[in-house]
Amino acid sequence: MDNEAPSPLKVTMAAVAVEAGVSRATASRVFYGSTPVAEHTRQAVYAAAERLGYVPNTMARSLAARGSDILGLLVRAPDNPAYGLLFSELQANVSGAGLQMVTVAPSRNEGAHFERQALNRLLGLRVGGMFVATGVISAGMLEPFLDLVPVVVVGRPESHPDIHGVSYDEDHNADLLAHAVAAAGHRSAAVVVPEHSVSEHRRGAAMARGLTERGVRVHQVSSPTFGSQGEGGREIVALRRAGLITAAMFPSDFRLLAFLPLAQEAGLRVPEDLSLTGFDGILPGIDLLGFTTVRIPVEDAARRAVEVMRAQLEERTRPRHELLPGTLIRGRTLGPAPTLR
Amino acid sequence: MDNEAPSPLKVTMAAVAVEAGVSRATASRVFYGSTPVAEHTRQAVYAAAERLGYVPNTMARSLAARGSDILGLLVRAPDNPAYGLLFSELQANVSGAGLQMVTVAPSRNEGAHFERQALNRLLGLRVGGMFVATGVISAGMLEPFLDLVPVVVVGRPESHPDIHGVSYDEDHNADLLAHAVAAAGHRSAAVVVPEHSVSEHRRGAAMARGLTERGVRVHQVSSPTFGSQGEGGREIVALRRAGLITAAMFPSDFRLLAFLPLAQEAGLRVPEDLSLTGFDGILPGIDLLGFTTVRIPVEDAARRAVEVMRAQLEERTRPRHELLPGTLIRGRTLGPAPTLR
DNA sequence: ATGAAAGCGCTAACAC
DNA sequence: GTGTTAGCGCTTTCAT
Predict the structure, then answer these.
(1) By CB count within 10 A, which of A311, B122, B149, B308 is most buried?
(2) Contact present, B104 and A78 (Cβ < 8 Å)
(3) What top-level branch of life does the organism fall under (chains A, B) (predicted)?
(4) What global pTM score does this model have?
(5) Which of B59, B250, B282, B299 to mutate to test the interface with A (most CBs of A within 10 A)?
(6) Could you read off the pLDDT of B255-307 as tens digits, one per residue?
(7) What is the DSSP letter of A271?
(8) Which nucleotide is nearest to B26 (CA to C1')?
C-alpha cells in the first residue's frame, strides 16, 4: 500500500512523471512544452498531477528556461487609490492575456533608494517584463536592463526616449476643465498651482493656460505644502469676497474636498456663489459628492500598457509614448457664472 | 583589453567570483552566507559585484536553498483603499524586518477560482510565508500548505483554527459607535444592515445590538443590493420625517456618503435634524467631510501580522487569533439628539 | 511521440 | 577562511 501523499509543495515533476508512467521530459512537455504530446499521455499526466496536488516550481522552471513569462509591476504607493486602481486593472488585463504578474512596492513612499530595492526584487525574480508605475525611479536606473527586459512606464506623463510609455494626457485633461469653466460663462477664476507636486503643478499650469487662452482672467494661488490646505483656501475665499472670481479650479479632487469645509464655513454656496472643479475622478465614492472633475483614464492606460507589453514580448520595437485623454465629469460643483457682487 | 561588460542581468555570481579572484562559494558566503569571510575578501567581492552590476538571481538562490525568505501577499482587491493601505503597511513592516515581499491579486474581484490562481502564483514562487488578505479563499484551500509555509490571514474577522489570524474587531468597533450614539442622547435610530455583504451585515447587526443594549430603539433597514443606494436612504428619510428616529448608522463610510445627497435633497440638516455615523475611516480625504465613524486599525493589523509571521518563521507555534480594536472618530455628523417633531 | 542527459545559477555540506 | 562538489526542479537539445 502507498504511503500517504507528501505535502503538495514537495511534489516534484519527477514524482508526477513516475505516477503517470512517463519520463520527466514528457511531463514537462505536457505542462508548457512546445512539442506535441499524445492525447492520452497528456491526460495521464494531468491526472497524476491532480492526484498528487502538484504545484509547479516557478523557480526551477524559469531557471531552466533562462527567464520567465511572469511580468512584474513596480507600483509607487498602493495606498493611493489611483495606483490601487491601476494595479487592479493591470492585473485584470495581464490575466486576460494569459500572463502572470507579481507586484512589488517600495517600503516607503519617498526615496529613490527604496524604489531601487523594489526594482531589484523584480529583477532578481528575472521577470519577463516590467511595468513601472512610479515617477521616482529615473530612466537612468532602468537603462541598464532595457535590452534584457521590456519596460513599460505607465501613468506618469514623462519618459525616456528608449522606454515605452503609456501616460495620462494631463495637459489635455486640464484643458477639458478649462473649457468647461469658460463655457459656463466664468470670466475670472482662481487656479491652485501647488509648488511641490510635479504632477499637480503641471495640471494647475495647464488649467491656467487653458483659461487664459479663452479670455478668462486667472488668479493663480500657489498652495503651500500639502499638509496645510487652509492657506490657499482662505485666499480663494478672500478672492470671492472681493468679487474677483466666480470659480476656483483645483489640481486634485482631494484639494477640492479640503476646500469644501472652508467654503461652507464662509457661507459660500456651491455653485451658486462659487463654482469649483477638481481633478482625478478616482476616489471611490467621490462621484456622490457631485464633483465636476476630469476622470483620468486609468483603465485605458492599463489596457494599452499590457498591449504594448505583449507586443514587446513578441518582438522589440521602437519605443513609443502614448498620451491618453481623460473624460470630463459634469458634476454639481460647476454652475453658470453668477453676477458678481 | 576587456570586452564591454555584458548586461547586468547576465552577470552570474561565478563571474563576480572570477572578477574578485575568489571561488563561487566564497562569493556566495559574502552575500548571504552564515560562515564568516575575511574582511578584505568581502570588500573585493562587493567591489566586483558593483563593477559588474550584478543582480543576484533569486530563482537560482531559492532553488538551491530549497526555499526563500521572500514573503507573499495575496490581496483581494487592490483598488479598494482599505486593501491598498493594508498592502502599503504590510510592505513597510516587512521591509522594516529586513524581509522581502511580493504581492499578487486575483484577476477579478469575485470568484474563488481567480483567487486560487493567485494563490498558486505565490506557491509557485515557493514563498517563505504568506499573508492572505481576502475572505474569498476558504481555509480549506489553504490547509494543504500549512505545514510547509506559514500563513497569516489578515483583516477578515473569521478564521480557521489551524491558521493564524490578525483581524479587525468589528463587533467592538460597532459597539464604539453604538455607545457614542447612545451617549449623544439618541433614543431611536435607524441601522443599515445589508444582506449581501458579510462584513457589512455583521457590522450592522453588531451596531443594532449595541444600541438595543443601551435602551435605544432600533429601526433596521435592510439595504438592498449595493448599486441602488436610493432605497434604504429613502426609508431613512421617511423614518426621520415620521419622527421615528434622530440618527442613522451606516456599516461603511461609502454608504454614509451615498446618503448625503438624499439628506440634502430632503432638506435634512446634519446633524441638527439627523445624526449620521459611518464605518471604516479609510477613504483618503474622507476625514475632511467630518464623518463620525470608526477607523479600522489597518496599521496595527499590518504590524501584528508581520510580527506573527516573523515568529512563525523562527518556530512554528500554535495558531492564534487576534482581534484589533479600532478608534472612534468624532466628526461633525453626530450631534446631540434633537427633540422630535 | 518520447526518453536520456546536460545544464540553468546558486547553496551547502564537506574537505583542506 | 576558503575551495570543491553535489545537487535544487526544471527545460531542452539530441537521439531514438
Answers:
(1) B122
(2) no
(3) Bacteria
(4) 0.94
(5) B59
(6) 999 899 899 889 999 999 999 999 999 988 888 889 999 999 999 999 999 99
(7) T
(8) D2
